[in-house]
Amino acid sequence: MIRTALASSLKRGYSTTPLISAAKPVNGFVGAIGNTPLIRLNQVSEETGCNIYAKAEFMNPGGSVKDRAALFVVKDAEEQGLIKPGGTVVEGTAGNTGIGLAHVCRAKGYKCVIYMPNTQSQEKIDLLRMLGAEVYPVPAVAFENPDNYNHQAARHAKSLENAVWTNQFDNTANRRAHIETTGPEIWQQLDGNVDGFTCATGTGGTLAGIARFLKEKSQGKTKIFLADPPGSVLYSFIKSGGKLNERGGSSITEGIGQGRVTDNLQPDIKLIDDALQIPDTDSLRMVYRLLDEEGIYVGASSALNVVAAVEMAKKLGPGKNIVTILCDGAYRYQSRLFSKKWIESKGLSDAIPEHLKKYATL
Ligand code: PMP
Q1: Which residues form the Tryptophan synthase beta chain-like PALP domain (predicted)?
Q2: For ligand 1, atom 5, which residue shows the shortest CA distance?
Q3: ipTM of the complex model
């Protein structure tokens, strides 16, 4: 129907047949969060014999999946009376929650203060500052260290009047965003035919919230796989049945990988059926493949998620509907992911096949 209308409009120059069913107007920035498209990734679907669907979270108004959590933690603080008009929201973040918060704070009239590890891309720091946030990039030290970016954010909030540390890692309003919005959207978009869901975790809010909703709705039938980058402890935690190893190694992916089981993940970790560890070579290759095959320009955590969905499809067998998340756009990392020099510095030049190297233009 849409295709026919499009074809005839191209032939005649215009068409009066609607091409899309347009969504109703929404109220302000926060009203535009959520209700993202679910995209069938055609090439990887053909290859696996499954339908691999990706939730286009990069289409949120602040550009990432974390807009949802940002809105929910601020609403929660307001409802609990922890912040009043003109107050300050302080958060520790790899960047995307901060960007979501900076937008929500502008829309609601709060100040925004962000602590982030100084290992994160310059693009995210620049964007946060352009959105009016006060940004402190700090040395990337473990959570146990009192100078970890989260503890610094907590102390900063305590030192101010009318300020809240939204604590995305252990504040379960984050996970609630996905129980109440992302999970139901996926279920509705596939008329309840969801055989598998997989994604990586930072706070764990996305995975835990969606897992909780899908498991309940499907009466346990939807399989849930956690996807982990190198250097994160959750893969071995799940594979070993609950042994928490020291964190070791690193990854080019930003915003994912964890050294502990957060309060967002804890209540739902038993819902996870299996875990996958995805090497950086595969994630980087998938960044380029998604661009080349689908015209989709997303960051490394999104690409890792798609690699995990492909692995999950192989494990579950053909004919299944597998869903994952496209967390954010590659705009946030392009000085890294599309720079030959940077890729070389990470020893990842061989990850990109010859015919895709033409995209590394920075
Ligand atoms: N991908 C990116 C790019 C992110 O910034 C984040 C959040 N830090 C995630 C994935 C993971 O989301 P969550 O915190 O819900 O686990």
Answers
A1: 32-328
A2: 255
A3: 0.99
